[in-house]
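Two proteins, back to back. First:
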Amino acid sequence: MPVISLDDDGRWWALTTPASTYVINVEIDPRTGEAAPLQRYWGPALSLQAAQQMAGARRHTTSFSRPVEIEELLPVDGGCRWGVPSLQAAFGQVRSLELRLVGVSPCAEAAADRLDIALEDRHFPLEVVLSARAWHDSDVIERWVTVRRRTDADGTPVTVTRLDSGSWFLPDATGYRYSGVFGAWAEEFQLQRAPLPIGELTFTSRQGITGHQANPWIMIDPGDTTEEHGPVWGIALAWSGSWRLTATHRPEGGAAVSAGFGHEGVRWTLAPGQEITTPPVLGLYTGGGFGAASRAWHDHARRHILPTPQEERPVLYNSWEATTFDVTEAGQLALAKIAASLGVELFVVDDGWFGTRDDDTRSLGDWWPHRERFPDGLRGLFDGIRELGMKAGLWVEPEMVNADSELYQAHPEWILRMDHRRNDEKRSQLVLNFARPEVRDWALDWLDRLVTELDLDYLKWDMNRPFTQAGWPEAGPAQDLLWIEHTRNVYRVMRTLRERHPRLRIESCAGGGGRVDFGIMRYTDEVWPSDNTDPRDRQTVHHGFSQIYPISTMSAWVPDSPNPNTGRATPLRYRFHVAMSGVLGIGGDLTTWSQEDLDQASRFIRAYKSVRRVIQQGRLHRLGGIPGQERSAVQYVLGDDVVVLIYNPYGNAKRGPRWLRLAGLDPDALYEVVDAGGPGKGPGLLEPGSRYHGSVLMSVGLRSAAWEPIGADYRSDMIVLRKLG
């Protein structure tokens, strides 16, 4: 059983996963009766007898601090606590919590076991429930918190100013190191790995979306963990709005990470009977290095988060880089005919199809076909796409409105706004307040009609700016709830669309990678990690993305050369091999490609289709040096099939290993080379049909033309192997 009681009083509990144990103790202060749920252990799996020994562990104390607070599952603002609070609440002028235990309740669920710890303030009408779930088939532990104002409350106002999903205590280590990602528009998911400083380290988004600057996850290791060896503790928040994640490293030792939605300054006022439930925060322990951590995150997402985890994602074409706002039926069909001839399976019409949308200053909110360009509507265009044998997709941006639109003229009160303050535009856009039920219902209505009338297979849901003047005057004291309800209503619309249209697939985009997280992935099939399609830059984006998110969700395009973002010229082969490391798409202007490039593109697409299930569903191993800067490779293993994509951006790459060692193979098996370089290959050093022992491939390695230390810039290979017998 994943949830086990360790004592007769119901104060000690162990949550077990296939490879880890998580021990909780509800400590009661004998003097005050105050309850403090503590995390006593999180690490490699323990036997029942070993877990019970945790009850005898003693902790360090000092006169001027309370080190034990770092072990609390939800350290509150109150009493002898001076660290980062996970829960802050005010009752009129009283800004301190004193919680007592109500009860602990285990329960069995279909694929997991759950533990609820119920607490209440000893005087004021606030109830707090800490919940934890241990899955039968995953090493991820899921936690969340519910706060509720009791209905028997008097007139004392109850306001919550901080509500995290939980705090996670990291076992003692001689040196903590953190891993996370930072970025900006067109430079998302840049991996950083550094010693965890003593004090507090905070990652956050105050933008109303997940954000480009950081992503809501962190990994902690003892300082010497490698890709394939050593312990890793990871924490990820499943939320697509504003968020905060703070890692605390205590001066006397010990570290913890608290994560939750919201940011500084918001106030959530609770009416009698009202409750707030946080999004899940997920924790994962592994002893197998960063690679094993990534693979465990990917497995959990496929089993318990993604809506269509086993589907093979189609090769798509997106028209944005080819046409921008110049969207016409003739122009789109001309691109579609070329795309179909290459083997593309899904054609997505991007921005510029609606209202009077001739540039980015107008018509957001007016979601009907452009009256001049499509006087007879869009049905002819999408019927034409389907006649070419492709599925049909469309770009939308439901949360935005232009001031120059019929919608804004009819409903100026629908935007985020504050009395006596200006309405700042960004990208000529204002943000619709999706927390308003009438805005949510309006969006669901036109999206449902659009999908139905055009028989759409795919929506690219974009969100191109952060919140400003995030107010809702009509909501009064409850207006800060919009920071929560906006995101949840986006989820509700997506979920309802999927229920009404089971064949519909959705992609999340927010100016590139501004809304990528385990929250949005519950309702979407793919995400767009960056507007930067330059292949060398995309390698670093893909590297950071893959740390916790599955490759089957990562959309990647083959762009034109020179690249429209960077002006950098790269070979078509390199562009394809980088895009093939995720869900392959084409984003260039196909009408300008030479016949030689089109022929080569067709061969690459066929090659990708032959291995895409391995790439999209296989277990990922990151090999070699820093992607985009040194010789590197990514390897995918699914059953007996192995695919290796090899990259060498610089011709004079003399440093690093001369042989590329593979990982995750059966050392006692023979592997046969099925393909040794793919279409358009140069003089490779492997030959199809040759055979190698798994132990040799992992301990010695293989060589390819792309891995050689001297040659042209931007060399790449795709090696395909199959296990024999």
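And the second protein:
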Amino acid sequence: MFFVAGICTLLQVFLGVRLPILQGGTFSFVAPSLAMLSLPAWKCPEWTLNASQVNTSSPEFTEEWQKRIRELQGAIMVASCVQMLVGFSGLIGFLMRYIGPLTIAPTISLVALPLFESAGNDAGIHWGISALTIFLIVLFSQYLKNVVVPVPVYGRGKCHVSKFNLFQVFPVLLALCISWLFCFVLTVTNTLPKSPMAYGYMARTDTKGSVLSQAPWFRFPYPGQWGLPTISLAGVFGIIAGVISSMVESVGDYHACARLVGAPPPPKHAINRGIGIEGLGCLLAGAWGTGNGTTSYSENVGALGITRVGSRIVIVTAGCVLLLMGMFGKIGAAFATIPTPVIGGMFIVMFGVISAVGISNLQYVDMNSSRNLFVFGFSIYCGLVIPNWVSENPEKLQTGVLQLDQVIQVLLTTGMFVGGFLGFVLDNTIPGTLEERGLLAWSQIQEDSEETLKAAKVYGFPWGIGTKFCTSSWTRALPFWPKLDQHGDEAGVSQLTLCPQTSSGKHLWSVTETKM
């Protein structure tokens, strides 16, 4: 999974949406995967359920789990082709003309809000450690963000001291390392309990020691390592439901990431390309046999909001690190030993930032309108209520068609899909003016993002592709190809019209043109 996540991250940064978003395993595929494996044909035999009586290295046991992962591989690879079709055909970009702030806001917010139970459970393992992690992140990212630290730097043949905003750049990493070290000290001194049943045991750093000792030093993963994938209709339909949820989440992540890093909203061609590349990532994940797909990481978007470091170089470095972690097992196993309450404390801060970013999209909407209050309030509340009820009462939604049951189960237990879908339907059916709905300002931003030089620099292809190279007229007709400035030439020269504002806020359209 680490290895494929590294490949997909590099593909997304260079050829996809080009925003600094990490790619990794998606929770959207977990529910349909479990539903598929609960079918009578794929239930585990009774003799495999007692771990003390099973030789895990025997050929019989190996074949039992490998044939199941081959089935999962085939379903993921077929479903990923649907995602690539939706992205590269421009269908997702076409739908964006009907998607406004009242759809994006509940979708992004519900990426994080339903995870409060997971974050609370992780943090509740030891609230003291979690509170320390939260305190350090808040201290570094908010109170000490403008404090400069003298750092020795070597350059121009000599060593000198340079000022560096250490706490603003690395608040999460510093907080994680300090809390991790603190847990290690408490473990060595046996301050934390040794009994697995005692409160705070999972805060010890030696609870996952076997992971580190059993991990191989080096192993190169390759496609088809579990054999030839198999395909079943039930598995494909279930995974397609997960793909739909993943796409909805990713579109929200793109807008949230762009807003946090100060980039223009992603234009249609960038969204088309990003979703298409994510589909390609799922295809690679299926071929490599990870047992999962890949998607944009909402947690990474939350980290951007805290660190305020939106750099492609950082994400490229992270992708290379993931590749190394996938090949050097000891490195990945070391990160797996991070105590759970430390992760829980980080989640509480990051998910809070993501929720706030989603709500911030309402700045374009007239929130004095009872119509808009109803659409947003109803959508986000149903996005919390319906998935919770469906999760607790899965037997109430049995239609008799297993494939249909799986699709319904996955979609209705995904809060971001429920809230985003209701927001989309209500916003496009309840009467309201374009200005009231925020679509006037939203469409203006989208049009500007298609034309501005900054958007061309952020979302255009690297290495001059589309400007100096591959500039054929037929490529520009592709729905995922960057649109060149009509005033610029193929060498990348654009004309930028300067539009200063008067004191009343109106634009003075100047005829001054600056060659860029």
